[in-house]
Amino acid sequence: MSPSGSNLSPSQAASRLGVSGKALRLYERHGLLAPGRTRAGWRAYGPAEMARAAEIASLRALGLSLKQVARVIGGDAGDLGAALAAHEARLHAQSRQIADRLDKVRHLRSELIRGQTPAPGELAQLIDADTRLAVGFDLPWPWGGERFELDDIRPLTYLTGPLGSGKTRLAMRLAEAIPDAEFLGLERLADNAAAAKARLERDAALKSRVDRTLAWLVGDGASRSDALTALLAALEAEAPNALVVDLVEQGLDQATQEALAAYLRLGTREGRKLILLTRSTSILDLDDVGGSEAIIYCPANHSSPIRVAPYPGSPGYEAVATCLASPEVRARTAGIIALRPSDAIAS
Asked: Is the entire prediction scored with pTM above 0.85?
């Protein structure tokens, strides 16, 4: 295929579709999309490929796994019916929220006519999202008690930093400060794996949600494991309203991490906040961070944690990038502790 005005490069196609280049490669890897090639061998997306990619992206936005997308494209609409029903329920919930706000606006207008001004905070509640959440506290050790404030906590927040930066202590403090929040530590990989299975046996509704999510993830290439089951048992629980997860990638292979990241970006329970500690590029792909996501970076010198914008050149971007590695690299260096020069000489 030769270049032409009707063919787009991967970056152009991704921008027009509102997806990442990584998503396009994923569609191709699963046999859902077959872009053409230029004479130089570069991928090129013509009108037919763009139409197919748009259909795939729409089905993904409805919450279908790649395996389910393949079935729908192949003519089996069974999965699509359930996805549309779930989407309809979300739209009804949103319409109820809009109706409640309209009632509030009418009430405030009638009060103004009678000479009554809105009470403090009423307008802010009217304009801001119902799920807006902010938190502030004094930083724990290894910091020196500096004030830390995080306003407008996003539905999905990544927390990262180098070893010894204090990110786990910050995560635990966040779980204490955020109303109705819970910290999910690495003990989930051992004793809590059995506890998670027992929990699912006791709670049929939770087990149904976990099984459904697990099937979705497996359809995207994930592998079943105790670590994944324990994590999903917490993610799919009705409570709490905020969940802080220590090293979310722990115990998960690369394909599972990628599938989990894609699932979390689709959104879990409405209104829930997720704060994920990670050092994996499969969980935190800086090219994929969207408007409902945020990054918090803990510097190695224990200066106050900062919020980092996900684009090159922004303060802290390069530092975040150097903290992240692929699952392959993370596995290769797991458990390695660097020796000080004096240790090396002594040995």
From this structure: no
